[in-house]
């Protein structure tokens, strides 16, 4: 391979930020949204909830002023795991939400246990019935309350769900053992740009002070570190020279370190570009252990062996 590859906006950031648009009762413009089936499905879910949505290229305009539905449609949610993110914003805005479980009512460990435990700690009544999570906030105000929450595992999904729910809650929420992924930071930056008060994004402790409402925003999503990492590894496998743009090298520290250890040359430019040159000698073997961020991403693991 040879040439320059333009890296898309981060899918995992785009999906949760689209859900986060439900928190605001004014216009939101989201830029650098990747053109993917999952993004289109999230848009369908938002529309089903009463959100006005318009897309022009990689820009999506959202208006959730007349958020009218608290129940996400099963036929759409069952096809998109990330659609469960809407439960936090729905509870924060309406005080009630009905969202099908990712994968329906299959028997086994619930993939949303940490989400449910955290929402309960914030005062929501939550029960699961026939594959649907029913949640409501008791009382006339129907507003979540700040709480101190410890996550047994630094789950990205639970961190993002509880962060969004806490932005409009009464009082302060402290989220311990939070996920530190760049997509979590991007969501926090998006919420802050709308007026949310969030501290500690990118660390293990998040502190969110609830505000009564959020305001309009024009926000651009970060580049996709998994896509960039995949192209870097593909370039190494094929002994190629490629340039990636735009990228955030700090999001790829583990991948870059392993490629350099194997003998590939990786350099970053001042313009947000990253250059890989693997045309030299045979690359060396190395050990890789996948870990939560900032460790080596599991999504890139299967592509990391060049021979």
Features:
2 domains; elongated; UDP-n-acetylglucosamine1-carboxyvinyl-transferase, Chain; alpha+beta; 15 strands; four-stranded mixed beta sheet; single chain; 307 residues; 9 helices
Please provide a brief summary of the model.
It contains nine helices and 15 strands.
Structure, explained:
The protein has 307 residues and is an alpha+beta fold. The chain folds into two domains: 2-220, Alpha-beta prism (UDP-n-acetylglucosamine1-carboxyvinyl-transferase, Chain); 225-303, Enolpyruvate transferase domain (UDP-n-acetylglucosamine1-carboxyvinyl-transferase, Chain). It has nine helices and 15 strands. Helix 1 (11-20) packs parallel to helix 7 (182-193) and helix 5 (113-121) runs parallel beside helix 6 (156-167).
CATH fold type of the largest domain? UDP-n-acetylglucosamine1-carboxyvinyl-transferase, Chain
Mean pLDDT level: 92
Give the CATH level 1 class of the largest domain.
Alpha Beta
Write the element-wise H/E pattern from the N-terminal end onward. EHEHEEHHEHEEEHEHEEEHEHEE
Tell me, briefly, the overall form. Answer: elongated
